[in-house]
Amino acid sequence: MNTVIDAHNISKVYNKETIPVYAVNNVHLHIERGEFTALVGPSGSGKTTLLNLIGGLDKPDDGQVRINGLDITGLSADQLIDFRLKNIGFVFQSFNLIPVLTAKENVEFIMQLQGVERSKRDARVKQLFDQIEMADKLDSRPAQLSGGQQQRVAVARALATKPQFVLADEPTANLDSQSAANLLDIMAKLNKEEQITFLFSTHDQRVIDRARRVITLVDGKITSDTAAVSTKHGHAGGKK
């Protein structure tokens, strides 16, 4: 395995001029290729902030974030946009699909931004919609899809450009039990078969049960980092 994410002693501080509040406090974190990891903790513990720092959506006040050895904290805003486009897939709680585009158009949009030619876009979209078991929904708009289907399209969009890893912020929060289970089945299969790295921020026990590593944050600090064993799904792994 090789290190995909190396967050070295990163902090994010608010209200610096009055009473400082550490959303992330001196966190050191390695994520290896192929991990299926859950960040857990109470609301306000810093999970989403940490994901945003790792994904280059925000910059730390201290420390470094290295992705495959590249220090992204030193990149300009334009460089970060280009880096995220080429290297990181994002899945959000609220799906964030473009309502006027079809499911197919939502997934291929990011490839259009990259300048991928049409034939390659079409082939990649077909592959992804087969993987998410929605080949019959290519021409449906988001409003015509269930929440679970929309989130599956969001996963396909995150994977469209074959990113280094996927950051998923509470991806099952708006889903019913069956939709959440279907989505997690798909992501676990992609993780196993294609070694796609997933890092989740979650409160959802359903996600935690599937994770092979569980990292707990409290008040912006990592308080535990353990391998997870799921008797229900029969797997174990992660960092001891």
Descriptive notes:
The chain is an alpha/beta fold and 240 residues long. It has one domain: P-loop containing nucleotide triphosphate hydrolases (Rossmann fold, 3-Layer(aba) Sandwich). It contains seven helices and eleven strands. The strands form two sheets. A seven-stranded mixed beta sheet has the order 6-7-8-3-9-10-11, with helices on both faces. Strands 2-1-4-5 form a four-stranded antiparallel beta sheet, with helices on one face. The two termini are 15 Å apart. Mean pLDDT is 91; it is low at 229-240.
Supply database-style keywords.
alpha/beta, Rossmann fold, 7-stranded mixed sheet, 4-stranded antiparallel sheet, nucleotide-binding, ABC_transpr_LolD-like, ATP binding, ATP-binding, ABC_transporter-like_CS
Query: Which geometry do the CA atoms define?
Result: globular
- State the CATH class: Alpha Beta
CATH superfamily: P-loop containing nucleotide triphosphate hydrolases
Number of strands: 11
Biggest sheet layout = 7 strands, mixed
CATH topology: Rossmann fold
Class from helix and strand fractions: alpha/beta
Order of helices and strands: EEEHEEHEHHHEHEHEEE
In terms of DSSP E residues, the strand content is 25-35%
Number of helices: 7
Quaternary class: single chain
Spatial gap, N to C terminus:
15 Å
Radius of gyration: 18 Å
Architecture, according to CATH?
A: 3-Layer(aba) Sandwich
Unreliable segments (pLDDT under 50, ≥5 consecutive)?
Answer: 229-240
Tally of structural domains: 1
Widest sheet: strand ordering = 6-7-8-3-9-10-11
Helix content: 25-40%
